[in-house]
Amino acid sequence: MNEFILTEFSIFYKRLVKVEICLKKLIVEKYTNFYGENAYNIFNRYLKTLNTRNTERKIFTKIYNSSKTSSDKLELSINEMYISEILNLFTNKVFLKNKVRHDFFREKVQTNDNNFLRKAKALKDFRNCLAHCNEKKYKIEKTKFIDGLIYFEKILNCSVSMDYDLLTKIPKFKKLSTTEILNIIYTYKKDYFKDDKLLIMLFDDIALMNGYTFQGLPQRWTIVRQKYELERKVNGSSENNIKDDKSSQMHLPF
Question: pTM for the whole thing?
């Protein structure tokens, strides 16, 4: 695998890890807020089903038998879970028959419907694909993988520079030019134009989501040059509008 694909993998893996962290924090928060000190005992019903995944470690049993507080046990157990186990929780009866499922995500989500199941599977497959550097599978299923990733970034409200609302502005069936991507950023994330490093990072994210390969990304100097060109045109247009306004005022009847 060449260095360009590896870099592309690392960019998406960073976003995927952020989703995993958001999911784990959300589970701790929701169960604790709902059940208080009893949160761990409730959640442990699901953990018991996971002990068979590693008969040598029995990590969840060890945590259960430890002298730590219930809140520490809950957090430690969730941190030990694989992302596949986290996602499988939402279709497990322990979760579906539990009142904590109500208002769990930032928007109403049915975790046992086909849409959620497809997105969850795509996210699990994406994680495995990146972890095992499966370049062939990645190229074939990249669109599906990204769709699953941004779905979870949306419902979790992950603190990423390119949130779901910005992603919806990116055409799915048209490869954007450098100028078109910069126009999107200028319209929805104008503050990034104040920092070239942040601008380039966001530009690369959008381009990769739009179908670019890392090897095919525009050179940094090209992005910055076109950034200044866009600002020049915008500022020039603003100045002309001001002049036009003044001219119009001169012809007012009073």
Answer: 0.72
Average model confidence (pLDDT) for the chain?
84
Amino acid found at 100: V
DSSP string, the chain: --HHHHHHHHHHHHHHHHHHHHHHHHHHHHHHHHHGGGHHHHHHHHHGGGGGG-TTT-HHHHHHHSSS-HHHHHHHHHHHS-HHHHHHHTTSHHHHTSGGGTT-SSS---TTSHHHHHHHHHHHHHHHHHHTT-HHHHHHHHHHHHHHHHHHHHHHT---SS-HHHHTTS-SSSPPPHHHHHHHHHHH-GGGGG-HHHHHHHHHHHHHHTT--GGGSPPHHHHHHHHHHHHHHHHHHHHHHHHHHHHHHHTS--
